[in-house]
Amino acid sequence: MIRTGIIGASGYTGGELMRLLVSHPQAEVVCATSRRLDGTQVSQTHPHLKSFTDLEFQNLDAGEVAKKCDVVFTAVPHGSAMDVVPQLLEAGTKVIDLSADYRLPTSVFEQVYGLKHKAPRDAVFGLVELHPEVRDARFVANPGCYPTGATLAAAPLAAAGLIERVVFDSKSGISGAGAEPSQVSHYPNMAENIQAYKLTTHRHGAEMQQELGRLDSDIKVSFTPHVIPSVRGILTTAHLFLKAGTDHSQVADIYKQFYEGKPFVRLLDGIPMLGPVRGSNFCDIGFEMDADGQRLVVVSAIDNLVKGASGQAVQNMNMMFGLDETTGLWNPAIFP
Amino acid sequence: MIRTGIIGASGYTGGELMRLLVSHPQAEVVCATSRRLDGTQVSQTHPHLKSFTDLEFQNLDAGEVAKKCDVVFTAVPHGSAMDVVPQLLEAGTKVIDLSADYRLPTSVFEQVYGLKHKAPRDAVFGLVELHPEVRDARFVANPGCYPTGATLAAAPLAAAGLIERVVFDSKSGISGAGAEPSQVSHYPNMAENIQAYKLTTHRHGAEMQQELGRLDSDIKVSFTPHVIPSVRGILTTAHLFLKAGTDHSQVADIYKQFYEGKPFVRLLDGIPMLGPVRGSNFCDIGFEMDADGQRLVVVSAIDNLVKGASGQAVQNMNMMFGLDETTGLWNPAIFP
Amino acid sequence: MIRTGIIGASGYTGGELMRLLVSHPQAEVVCATSRRLDGTQVSQTHPHLKSFTDLEFQNLDAGEVAKKCDVVFTAVPHGSAMDVVPQLLEAGTKVIDLSADYRLPTSVFEQVYGLKHKAPRDAVFGLVELHPEVRDARFVANPGCYPTGATLAAAPLAAAGLIERVVFDSKSGISGAGAEPSQVSHYPNMAENIQAYKLTTHRHGAEMQQELGRLDSDIKVSFTPHVIPSVRGILTTAHLFLKAGTDHSQVADIYKQFYEGKPFVRLLDGIPMLGPVRGSNFCDIGFEMDADGQRLVVVSAIDNLVKGASGQAVQNMNMMFGLDETTGLWNPAIFP
Amino acid sequence: MIRTGIIGASGYTGGELMRLLVSHPQAEVVCATSRRLDGTQVSQTHPHLKSFTDLEFQNLDAGEVAKKCDVVFTAVPHGSAMDVVPQLLEAGTKVIDLSADYRLPTSVFEQVYGLKHKAPRDAVFGLVELHPEVRDARFVANPGCYPTGATLAAAPLAAAGLIERVVFDSKSGISGAGAEPSQVSHYPNMAENIQAYKLTTHRHGAEMQQELGRLDSDIKVSFTPHVIPSVRGILTTAHLFLKAGTDHSQVADIYKQFYEGKPFVRLLDGIPMLGPVRGSNFCDIGFEMDADGQRLVVVSAIDNLVKGASGQAVQNMNMMFGLDETTGLWNPAIFP
């Protein structure tokens, strides 16, 4: 059994990691840290885990966690992972960081997040479908939720060198805003509403630019996020403007070939929705072409807490430990 | 024009009072107080009021408010109204208190709310349909949201002496929990959920007991509230156990006669829902009898922020100033 | 009093017309037609109108309706208005058509809707903010819901000749799909979901192209609609790519000047949301510029049933009868 | 591997059976019937099952199904199961009927459902926690969704002979109304609403009376159902009036003892909610006593499609085949 630890286990991504890991046949959670909730039952904060774990949150430092674990998930805010990652790595533990601290080159990170990086280290960007080198990694930076759905939607055509410009208009469930109550997640504000935010300046744009830029350095990327009255899920509508005309079957072939052998990407004939991926690690993708073959709208759907965070982290863990990438993750969504 | 003031205008009942009063043909809002938001635009906090008011929140004491106003609405938490009401009354202003401070006899209040009352005064209980003496009142205690819907559902049969026991099982929109974000109103906690709370101990039970007890002192009242994933509205399911058997048409007659001439009570042939009262001051009532004539289920629907709070307050104001009770309130619900 | 009639009054736009007209100080509804519901109470289908109207639906032909009315609203599906409009016009009645039959030049209509037009007539496109000639019109084609919010979002910059390309990514409440139950509006399919549809082929794109093309014939318009788990409202995110760089204050000035004296367009410093327009006739607009001044994201919010349909129709009626355009429409939204 | 078949597999309970069975380590679905969808992919109707099954719906008669299967689930409307159950049983197949046809004695069924029963047979009532004889059954009538949550809430105190009267006020997710669009499940009707229905006459009352009556023949049961704007889940608020006073710790002991060794009943210190059981087979139970010890409010929460239907059916299957009852069902809920 792989002994796993979670630093910062009281939030939604921490809870979701535990939901997935308590059913994982080859892994177990041996410690879950939280300063604030030290000594309380995990299942008090994550009530769906009652009967599945008797763990208590502990207030442990990174060194203590490293000693108990083969791999550690850092589910902390950006700016905090850099405080614990070096110590974990030096102790020889594998690390999967769910924060933003190691997804971008240091200079880009510092500019985008407006923070000095205290402890740069090289990490593999853990979007498994584009980064098979995760298999050999000891340190993985788990991608952001928006970049996961957006990048997977456009990557095949970017790799084919066909995209001139892409506008990602993403719609996220409100669980992406975290477990702490706030004005934006206050039910009367969110219900019967949709809120656009950071119209031109959301930090996740940098990850999209980086990952698509690796495939085609000329690509122009715009990104605007929204939150919708849904708990889970991100639907990304990718408006693609092409360099040259193409047709539906060519595009279909490009996607099919690109995602051959990627079990968690499902290519649909129709348009993806959130329901059929809810609670699962899938990314569903569908598209429609404009009559003139110059414009394409691609839609992707993921569960932001699974493929967009904790599920992808477990997928990374599977790869890093030589397991089949679907281990413990091969469950259908809950639908309806 | 009636000059009105609102003490504690930053919350939902304050915003709703202003929504109703900006369209009221005989009243205007001349001041809206908030300590925290002093000097900021009302329409920044209540964005739907943009273009309707240029008022700013002010941090005024009760005496200053009294000087400017013919009537003052106190939309403050329980325990706070008693700090301002005496001064307002002594200044000769009419007062409509939306808090719980003056709805119950002092001794009952102190027991139910666990507080010493600092400034007892006599108020008329402002459930207009049962208290025509509001017409002559200078000080009205506006009823709680749950007691409004529950009392109106059962009052006719209570007055007829037919009820042995009534169980009120109420389901409220989450706006009843206020404008401040909290765990219970956090979207991921409330969506796709329903939360029962204070199963046997909610304070509003005392108002129901008081009002129905005035009609029949033997009546046994139980009350359990819930919050549902809806912003507005309270549906109350009243399970009535009768002293003696009766039949459908007798019951229908009792309701019809009791609510004759009460424009805001609508008796339905079917079962009330929240949509057809949303944003309006109506209380819709419908019922169904058990085959044996011993048990009756009555359902009432109100908008908790209108008939359950601010609309009822304006209805009381209309009465206190000799206007038709529907003035400024005679608008259909927004449906769907 | 203006005597109004509604042909096809059983749907949501019919119900909403009546909601607005029962409170309108200068108009009354004298007939409401429905073949299917002939002889039943309007308030049975539109339960929020109970106590506001005793009208029954009638199965009348256009000629009978014309005789009773000064103006007729045709709230029927596209392809059906053309069956009644000519007769209404010939009878001398003013007509406001809420269908798509008269919004586009006949040849464009026939291509977009795949129908032969049986009775072409010239109508004024009833987007009052862009078409002051409504004042003199006897026949107005009320705009589609999506084109209203999209066109208002981009028109000022189009008129300034600044836009090279605009991508409208719109999110509509599900009431836009009508009162008839269907798979897409089935609660378990729509809740916790968002559905993109007609990714590149929605018919409303033609109206946007027409209206913005009037302001700048070179403009390139793309449009993708979605439905979200909200009953009312359309939020349109307009991604604008500019011909030349500009800055925030220039853009702000352009919008301010363009909408000077247009009471139903509210320019916000922040980002519009659906709540503050719900149930009202407002279109709220806000924007944010990219750092390089080449790209702009403008967001508009309307209530699809009010400014996107019935409210705008009443606004048109007001203009056509020489009333102030806000008559009967000057009410704040219901929020929260 | 247990070969299972599902008759009537196109609805929500059919889809949920397949969701559970594709992950079940000891069972597989070998046929799924649907007359209407004959020849189409199961994953077209149940899109979350894409990549999990290549089955097509087939139009098979009961005899053909019986030949292929060790156990057959009949997920058909009441009145239809009786057409296929006898043939299945005679072919020697085990049968779990999810319809209402075999839950009640024939005479009671005929009265409650207003139908003549064509093929009475004896079935075990498959509420495993009360009916350990399921272990030896060849034919199980899977309980209704409401009776499952209601009966489990009150059974311990009924068995203790303490209950004089119980009022079950239940709130169900709308998926209980099925996959076919209807007025009640139309999003604009259900959102921001709650609908009480069959206030005194819902058929599931008979099952509650039967099951609690087995434990205490004097008990008086009332039942009123509601649908709420939630896809899944039933929260039942049980208002219990006791024969004699008791106290909190006595009641806690009674529940603890009664549900000892029942893995799917979780007794909470707090009040159950829908989120922590969503997608899982748990029934969470909590309660609060009135100060005088005469009245108790017990709340239970289940997922109507899992413990209230398909999960319970799989739990029954596990028992009937000598497996641990948790096999394939031991997964936490999806929360939030």
Quick overview:
4 copies of one chain form a homotetramer. With 336 residues, the first copy, chain A, is α/β, with parallel strands linked by helices. The first copy, chain A, is 28% helix and 22% strand.
Protein model, in words:
Four copies of one chain form a homotetramer. Chain A is of the alpha/beta class and 336 residues long. Chain A folds into two domains: 2-122, NAD(P)-binding Rossmann-like Domain (Rossmann fold); 145-303, Dihydrodipicolinate Reductase, domain 2 (2-Layer Sandwich), CATH 3.30.360.10. Chain A is built from ten helices and 13 strands. Chain A has helices spanning 12-22, 42-45, 62-68, 85-90, 106-113, 145-159, 187-190, 204-215, 248-258, 306-320; strands at 2-7, 27-33, 71-74, 94-97, 124-125, 139-141, 163-173, 195-196, 220-228, 234-242, 265-267, 283-289, 295-302. In chain A, strand 3, helix 4 (85-90) and strand 4 form a beta-alpha-beta unit. In chain A, helix 1 packs across helix 10 (306-320). In chain A, 62% of the residues are buried. Chain A binds chain C through residues 165, 167, 169, 171, 173, 188-189, 191-197, 199-201, 222, 224, 226, 228-233, 235, 237, 239, 241, 271, 273-275, 278, 287-291, 295-297, 299, 336, and chain C through 165, 167, 169, 171, 173, 188-189, 191-197, 199-201, 222, 224, 226, 228-233, 235, 237, 239, 241, 271, 273-275, 278, 287-291, 295-297, 299, 336.
